[in-house]
UniProtKB/TrEMBL annotation:
Protein name: Peptidase S51 dipeptidase E
GO function terms (MF aspect): serine-type peptidase activity
Keywords (A to Z) from UniProt: Hydrolase, Protease, Serine protease
Gene3D superfamilies, alphabetized: 3.40.50.880
Similarity remark: Belongs to the peptidase S51 family.
Keyword rRNA-binding: no
The UniProt record lists the keyword Hydrolase: yes
GO biological process terms held by the UniProt record: proteolysis
Name of a matching Pfam family: Peptidase_S51
Source taxonomy: Bacteria, Pseudomonadati, Pseudomonadota, Gammaproteobacteria, Alteromonadales
Length: 222
């Protein structure tokens, strides 16, 4: 598998993670697709992401929206790309759109066949077993999605945008309790907490931590 899970694609470690994914595909110019988490009428975030990849020597010609603009005819081109970028945004709406279009099994097949994924924030959480961790960073399930199971490409959960002042998992739990945030305790069996300048890269079974992501496991206090 070739995966990058980012909090921010513009941070130094976020960019380094993207560079690793582009390099491992061994193409002179990588072709990418962008899957939006929701409607982007002005495509502002898409344009910003296009520019970022162009500066890294790649091309991102394909924009995919899962709601009113979705067209099944685009799928062969989507899965013919070297890398698919899963954008940030509304995690629950994003997952609901992917499920509605039947794209979760297709994305798994794509990765198993050698395709690479870059997930940013919401996009990174979708690469994990479930998006339960989205509640931890303030997302709300406004679309009333019942089944929060996701791609399960990695065996851990991911929470982006960890505030810099929270330097340990214990600090983070204390902050959740202070704010009366409800959460599924099963998340903490294996949960990465990532500040904006942290990222995770998984290539062929080898997981690399960039920056200072914090791993909470059931044995964190052992």
């Amino acid at each position: 598998m070739k995966l990058a899970l980012l909090s921010s694609p513009t941070s130094s470690n976020g960019i380094d993670a993207i560079k690793q994914i582009l390099a491992v595909q061994k193409k002179k110019v990588c072709k990418l697709a962008y899957i939006a988490s929701g409607p982007e009428p002005d495509r502002r975030y898409f344009s910003q992401t296009q520019t970022l990849y162009e500066e890294l020597g790649a091309q991102m010609p394909l924009f995919v929206e899962l709601e009113s603009e979705f067209d099944d005819d685009i799928l062969p081109e989507l899965f013919g790309c070297d890398v698919i970028h899963l954008a940030g945004g509304d995690t629950f709406r994003f997952l609901k759109g992917l499920k509605r279009r039947g794209l979760l099994p297709k994305l798994r097949q794509y990765v198993e066949a050698g395709g690479a994924l870059v997930g940013v924030s919401a996009g990174a959480m979708i690469m994990t077993p479930s998006i339960e961790s989205a509640f931890l960073c303030g997302d709300s399930n406004d679309v009333e999605l019942k089944d929060l199971s996701a791609l399960e490409l990695v065996p851990f959960h991911f929470m982006p945008h960890l505030p810099s002042e929270l330097s340990t998992p214990v600090d983070f739990i204390a902050e959740l309790q202070r704010k009366d945030v409800e959460f599924d305790e099963a998340l903490f069996e294996s949960l990465y907490l990532c500040q904006d300048n942290s990222a995770l890269v998984l290539i062929d079974g080898e997981l690399e931590e960039l920056g200072s992501p914090l791993l909470w496991t059931s044995c964190v206090e052992c």
